[in-house]
Amino acid sequence: MRQAYAHNWRHQREGNKAIEVPVLQRRGASGLTWHEKSARFNLLLEPHLDAVYNYARWLARNDNDAQDVAHDAVLRALEYLDGFKGERIRPWLLTIVRNTFYTWLKKNRPVEMVESLEEETHGAPEEVADPQALALRNADRRVLAATIERLPREYREPLVLRELEDFSYKEIGALLEIPIGTVMSRLARARRKIEEILRARGVGEDV
Amino acid sequence: MNQISKCRAELVQAYADAQLSLTETLEVEHHLETCDRCSASYRNQRALSTAIAESSLYYRAPRSLLDGINGALEFSEEPSPTPIASRINAPQGRSPTPIRTSLRRREHLWRAVSLAASAAFLIVLTAGIITRFNLPSPEDRTMHDVVSNHIRSLMVSHLADVASTDQHTVKPWFNGKLDFAPQVQDFAADGFPLIGGRIDVVSDQPVAALVYRRNKHYINLFVWPSTTVSAPEVAASQRGYNVIHWIESGMNYWAISDVNRGALEDFVKLTRSGR
Predict the structure, then answer these.
(1) ipTM of the complex as predicted
(2) Given A132, B11, B60, B269, which residue has the most CB atoms within 10 angstroms?
């Protein structure tokens, strides 16, 4: 212990003044030591780890795949961190989560790439139910989660970003690469679908 | 003039999402007063939002994710350590490796690497002929922990578990929380007032962290028992922080701050003269 200490810190003294000792010089090809990468992670990305995982989890819909995607997305983000020029890091980070997820999906679950979107009814607007009739207060966590998971991804994504991340329409549009008008219509459809599903399920009925 | 005479669902939705300008907000509010259909739709959306918010649908990252990332950072020095990342950059024609397999392979690799690392560490240590030390040594790890703890203490509002400028409040606070009693002194008269204390973990053991202030800068002084009786001061700087380390009376001391080297040395002098 003492030996490693002496060697690594090289107790060199210049007069009475302690002199600076370089600590861990080894660097990866990205030019960062693991200390530096680790510090960047701790400082910049770790505060958003829940957001990374949450988004990955709502995309992948199971814990294992979400963890794989989140893991790779974070390491990827660390490599590209210097390229970040935006205002908020979280939307940027979630863009990487999203790209990582779709790359992963294409390689591992190609069938799920194509989602069959249910035909939308564009006819006469449905009657608006009384909020109480939606029995939202009675819909427990499990029912609500299952309902949102059942939504096609293109509706699920903006809903999760809006309701759970409180992203603005503009941020959602930038992240999903769709115009704001489309963000709004997809959000509206997502919400309408949830209401329909919950109403069809009826009060207190199980999943 | 531009008042909403007709129902515009997307505006009502945007209103409920608080995404409208002030003018638009007022217009929608005015419309909601007179339109039952739109106000029902508004209440629906709010009810849904509330239900989602109250159902804790936000998934928190599991501890294993954090551990996995830290592991990957420590043991991989390669620029693109992730199978996905390398595949993203690779041409499309590459044979698709299932991610689970490559992840598992990667874990094995790390395990092998870490085993090899421990073995190498032991050999090198025994031989005592370390000239170049390539693996993170205990001191590097300690340094890393000290710097990370310092940064973290400044980031979140977690500078002190016990916030007090009174050394007689801070010192007893550690009683029963640590198996040693750190010396706690206030240097307010010398321009280094005591701010408080907290418990941190360095090198996998609980340590006392004493927090001092120098003008607008904070100094963390980490204290814990050492196996060595004493060691002279060693100064280093990492990521812009000055660090001074010494061992005295069988206790490890690590002082870290973004104050300049001179000020930190003054602080260390005060700390040492008090004993």
Answers:
(1) 0.75
(2) B11
